[in-house]
Write a structure and sequence with these properties.
- This is Ligase-associated DNA damage response exonuclease.
- It comes from Algoriphagus oliviformis.
- It is an enzyme of class 3 (hydrolase).
- There is one protein chain.
- This protein is α/β, with parallel strands linked by helices.
- It has two domains: 8-142 and 278-338, Metallo-beta-lactamase, Chain A; 148-274, Rossmann fold (3-Layer(aba) Sandwich), CATH 3.40.50.10890.
- Helices cover 24% and strands 24% of the residues.
- It is built from nine helices and 19 strands.
- The strands form three sheets. It has a seven-stranded mixed β-sheet, with helices on one face. It has a six-stranded mixed β-sheet with strand order 1-2-3-4-5-6, with no helix packed on it. It has a six-stranded parallel β-sheet with strand order 14-13-15-12-16-17, with helices on both faces.
- A hairpin with a 4-residue loop joins strand 1 and strand 2 (14-16).
Length: 341
């Protein structure tokens, strides 16, 4: 990128030279603005963190006793004369976009984002800018999400069917974000909702901010017969582990945008796949870029080459930058431990 760019990509992360601050750096730095709590964006080892207030409990849970300051949505703060503010990204609880303004130019770093309101995360807000840095995790036309109420009707119907046949329903979703979104829309009248320890711990961190149904932590003391017909929310890393033996007979399902591909369910060897993502689909990405008014778009993590090429075809100045971000992947327990969680 050019030397006079407001944000540049270096070996540590996305850097703002005049402010001497990084956005979601993937290597330790002195000052970091953090968009959200997923482990590829919120790393251990920075000297000073700044994020939205609602993300602070998540960061402390995962990273320990860090030096962190919180700001409100839309609150302007200056760093060495550069104006910053955070706006909702709609990805998960506490997820932000970063607006950066300096010398009459406005850039927006979206972090991870979703423009479909889900009733859990603060809804995405478009930000007018000159340059937009966007993820494109699902940046090909094959990805098109159903309205989430249809997906949750399918999930609850699946659970009800398993209950009638005496099987435990085990539903896999990421510990932070996806698990709480699933929990929000499960029908507790069907049965008891149980949780894996990693899901339960994160959910307890977020309960003060959310209205969620009661859950029961799975422990070795719970009789197997009490689990039959009920539902368990677990991280993808639990699939295939010895922990699953307690639920036999069971049926498994995965909630992920990747379930839009038939082969994805087979690769994960689950019985069902529900297409539910905390990222934009193809149309959502394009709508968000149009609403920003940006002329220049920088694409990171995902289908970057395909998406940027399409943007150039329709008149945008679009390019690709490599980052340490991973998009929607299995956030395994080993990753959580690495990041202090």
């Amino acid at each position: 990128m050019l030397r006079n760019d407001l944000l540049i990509f270096d070996s540590k992360g996305i850097f703002c030279p005049p402010a001497q601050v990084y956005l979601d750096p993937w290597k330790p730095v002195k000052r970091a603005i953090i968009t959200h709590g997923h482990s590829d964006h919120a790393r251990f080892g920075h000297q000073y963190y700044l994020t939205h207030h609602s993300n602070i409990p998540i960061l402390r849970h995962r990273l320990g006793n860090i030096r962190v300051q919180g700001v409100d949505w839309g609150q302007t703060f200056l760093i060495n004369g550069v104006s910053f503010s955070l706006q909702p990204a709609g990805h998960i609880v506490g997820s932000s976009q970063v607006r950066v303004e300096y010398g009459g130019e406005v850039w927006v770093f979206t972090g991870d984002y979703k423009n479909e309101p889900d009733g859990v995360a603060e809804p995405y807000r478009p930000i007018k800018c000159d340059t937009m840095i966007t993820e494109c995790t699902f940046g090909i036309p094959a990805f098109k999400w159903k309205p989430q109420h249809q997906v949750f009707d399918e999930i609850n119907s699946w659970w009800q069917g398993n209950r009638e046949e005496g099987r435990t329903s085990v539903l896999f979703g990421y510990t932070l974000g996806k698990a709480q979104r699933i929990l929000k829309y499960l029908d507790p009248s069907i049965g008891t909702i149980y949780t894996h320890g990693a899901v339960e711990n994160m959910t307890e961190v977020l309960r003060p901010q959310l209205e969620l149904p009661t859950t029961v932590l799975v422990t070795k003391d719970i009789p197997k017969k009490e689990l039959a017909g009920n539902l368990v929310i677990a991280p993808p890393s639990a699939h295939g582990s010895s922990w699953m033996r307690k639920f036999v007979p069971y049926e498994t399902a995965t909630c992920s945008g990747w379930m839009a591909f038939r082969g994805a369910r087979a690769r994960r060897a689950t019985d069902r796949g529900f297409v539910l993502s905390d990222h934009c689909d193809w149309s959502g990405l394009l709508d968000s870029i149009r609403s920003s008014g940006a002329e220049r778009v920088i694409c990171t993590h995902g289908y970057t080459d395909i998406f940027s090429r399409y943007l150039r075809e329709i008149g945008y100045e679009a390019s690709v930058e490599n980052t340490g971000y991973e998009g929607e992947k299995d956030e395994s327990e080993s990753q959580l431990q690495t990041n202090g969680g």
